[in-house]
Design brief:
411 residues; mainly beta; Pectate Lyase C-like; Elongation Factor Tu (Ef-tu), domain 3; 13-stranded parallel sheet; eleven-stranded parallel sheet; 1 helix; globular
């Protein structure tokens, strides 16, 4: 079923959300947004079976201004409400975040307001942590522009998302949100989305499976451009552009496995592509990684038994990175093993004062075949004990592996 909205029918986030809710109640369908430029005062929550579709650059959703509401004192884990010094301007249906100076990551609470009574605000689920008065707890209007929790079979297509970071003093925490964010969900497609300028990350998902991100751009965010995290498995990133982000163009988080990144571009970020704890069985192919301030590809330090292994990087152009920081165009830190770099073109930056590959001595079973390395201080800094001539046997990328690759997930 399709619901094609007029500009009047899509005049506010509340109106669009009502259409999404109504369509989900009858089994799902497509919500077709018109050409428009709309400031959101809350995030749009998708339900199972919903497809949200715009008109490309003609449909613009903008993050509303961020506001900060200090809590009036301590409040504890699991409670579905918070006491504020003032609740002026808040209303049911708005999406908000709660954190303190210590409570970030998964200790941050992202929720929808269910009621407002005086300076008490109700939330649709319990707080994720204790928030103590001495740690400056606050509620903020930080939220994803579009998000989904615990759903199946959804899509977001042909939209422009503007993060409006200058008007948002509090960033959205990466574990709980991004401009476009999914949590404990499966069967997700994002195509033709152009996103920029969010105070936080461009696209993130946690504890998800079976995800396709294709033909999208994420740029100018204060955090990472793309962030599959927390055990997310079986994802495909194809023909995407992630540039000018404050942290990484692409950040594999903890146990992000069986992921393919193909034909993508990561330029002018902090780091190009970052791979870390338990990020295994991943394929990066045909990508361009250029002009990033730190390493083009970084394999982060992750000690046994959670080290990086079974990743394949092939046919990529990696050039002009690590001008500000880092040890090489490709940097592989402690304990990684069973990695294969094949047929890549690696070029140093101005001056060529760093190696093409910088390999920690603890790395094992690293195979390098057919890579062209130019204008670097040296091609390779590594111990001979780290290298092997025969590529390690591995299964990697989207669509690889048996059903056991999902057994750590609740979805």
């Amino acid at each position: 079923m399709d619901r094609k909205l007029t500009v009047t029918e899509a005049g506010s986030a509340r109106q669009i959300q009502q259409v999404i809710d109504d369509l989900a109640a009858v089994g799902g369908g497509r919500v077709l947004l018109p050409p428009m430029d709309l400031v959101l005062d809350r995030g749009l929550a998708l339900h199972s079976g919903i497809e949200l579709v715009g008109q490309g650059s003609a449909t613009v959703l903008r993050k509303g201004p961020g506001r900060i509401y200090p809590l009036s004192g301590y409040h504890n884990y699991g409670m579905c409400d918070v006491p504020l010094q003032s609740a002026a301007g808040l209303e049911p249906g708005m999406t908000v975040s709660v954190h303190d100076d210590k409570g970030r990551g998964f200790y941050e609470t992202f929720a929808t307001i269910t009621w407002v009574e005086g300076n008490w605000v109700g939330l649709d689920h319990g707080l994720e942590a204790d928030y103590r008065a001495s740690d400056n707890p606050c509620l903020t209007t930080a939220y994803p522009l579009i998000f989904a929790h615990r759903v199946r079979d959804i899509a977001v297509r042909d939209l422009t998302l503007e993060g409006n970071s200058a008007d948002n003093a509090e960033a959205m925490g990466a574990c709980r949100g991004a401009a476009l964010y999914f949590y404990q969900s499966r069967g997700i497609e994002v195509t033709g989305v152009r996103e920029r300028d969010y105070d936080g990350e461009g696209l993130g998902f946690q504890i998800c499976r079976d995800v396709i991100i294709r033909g999208c751009t994420f740029s100018g965010n204060t955090g990472n451009g793309l962030h599959p995290g927390a055990g997310s498995t079986n994802a495909l990133f194809e023909d995407c552009d992630s540039h000018s982000n404050g942290n990484c163009g692409f950040f594999f988080c903890v146990r992000a496995n069986h992921i393919t990144v193909t034909g993508c571009r990561f330029t002018n970020n902090g780091t190009g592509v970052s791979i870390g704890t338990r990020d295994c069985h991943n394929l990066i192919e045909g990508c361009t990684v250029e002009g990033n301030a730190r390493a083009g590809i970084l394999v982060r330090s992750s000690p046994h038994p959670v080290e990086v292994h079974s990743c394949h990087v092939r046919g990529c152009t990696i050039s002009g990175n690590a001008a500000a920081e880092g040890h090489g165009q490709v940097e592989i830190a402690t304990a990684a093993h069973d990695l294969f770099f094949e047929g890549n073109t690696i070029t140093g930056g101005a001056g060529g004062d760093k190696p093409g590959f910088f390999i920690d001595p603890s790395v094992r079973a690293l195979c390098l075949q057919g890579n062209q390395i130019r204008d670097c201080a040296v091609e390779l800094t590594a111990d001979a004990t780290s290298l092997v001539d025969v590529p390690p046997a591995m299964e990697c990328g989207y669509g690889s592996g048996s059903d056991t690759i999902y057994r750590h997930l609740p979805v």
